[in-house]
Amino acid sequence: MPPGIMTLAADAPELSAANTGFMLICSALVMLMTPALAFFYGGMVRVKSTLNMLMMSFISLGIVTILWVLYGFSLAFGTDSGSIIGWSSDYVGLSGIGITELWDGYTIPVYVFAVFQLMFAIITPALISGALADRVKFTSWALFITLWVTVVYFPVAHWVWGAGGWLFELGVIDFAGGTAVHINAGAAALGVILVIGKRVGFKKDPMRPHSLPLVMLGAGLLWFGWFGFNAGSWLGNDDGVGAVMFVNTQVATAAAMLAWLGYEKLRHGSFTTLGAASGAVAGLVAITPSGGAVSPLGAIAVGAIAGVLCAMAVGLKYKFGYDDSLDVVGVHLVGGVAGSLLVGLFATGGVQSDAKGLFYGGGLDQLGKQAVGVFAVLAYSLVVSAILAFLLDKTIGMRVPEDVEVSGIDQVEHAETAYDFSGAGGGAAPRTAGPGTTAAPKKKVDA
What we know:
The chain is mainly alpha-helical.
């Protein structure tokens, strides 16, 4: 994703209605991805945790939006300070921005760039929630989001995309968020689950998805929204780079889904719907950093490699004993690492930049830069996220009590259930009759 660049006054761009409209549509597509993620995760958990899983994504829409307006945009994309963080007083509260003021070097208003980037900031902490299913207090999760985006996401976004950010200046390629979004979220998920521990019954009780149709719906909506996530990250539609990214997004996702299913058939003997959905997401993750640097043939390679690697990685939690509930580490961390590093192999030098990968005569230079970006973000997010989780756990507590986890977190944390199996309608917990209310008459039960 290109940050703002300086241009000569004579070459200063003018506001483009077409690019502005395109970017607003892309922003709406990326916003849709957070509810889509909620459906995807919500279908993968057991019935008793469905609403909590949905809410862990939805609450990010509220919290991160307000923080982004207050100071997040300034920290991520303000004037650089030491290549580590940004700050611009005009961006605080989005109060000092003219309505037609353009993002430096581009034909879209600053407001449009800000809202597009906001949607990235929203979905990133929501991704973490999939690793924490069934066992985290909702208030603790909301506070974790607040702290995490402030000390992890906003600085990392500046490193990767902000003018002057140290990874951007190094030449690390991350078209739409392999490092800033997926490695960041995947490493954070690993850090938190190492602190809060496993679910009750992990590796003993069946914890199968309760609604695979809901999973498939979420995956399909994610795939749809991801076109805005990826193609929109060129911030315009004038030179064909966004079109290449759009094509590569489709191609890599298809390849990853097929590769995951092939691995699954050979390894376990079946083609599963969960495997198809997970494989598609793995391909979307992997092409996110690399799709602006590779050809469609390269996108096939990126997707296929990521599909197999992620399918292999999801089983590591049973081998090493960490409870990554919905495979955030296996898909987002591993997929993000794979896609980011594969830039160093498959970059053609003919799309978003002239940087070439090893297989196109570029040697190991770009691969080395990609590795620095990958492991810097991974290490920072892992360590800081674990510290935040530890501090919250030792103060207000991160986990619900064991009896709540066993009986179902939805009733206790949200006073509702996802499904009304009684047929009476309404998923909310029954209210106790009090003054001004009439208790329902007791029904006679036949012997």
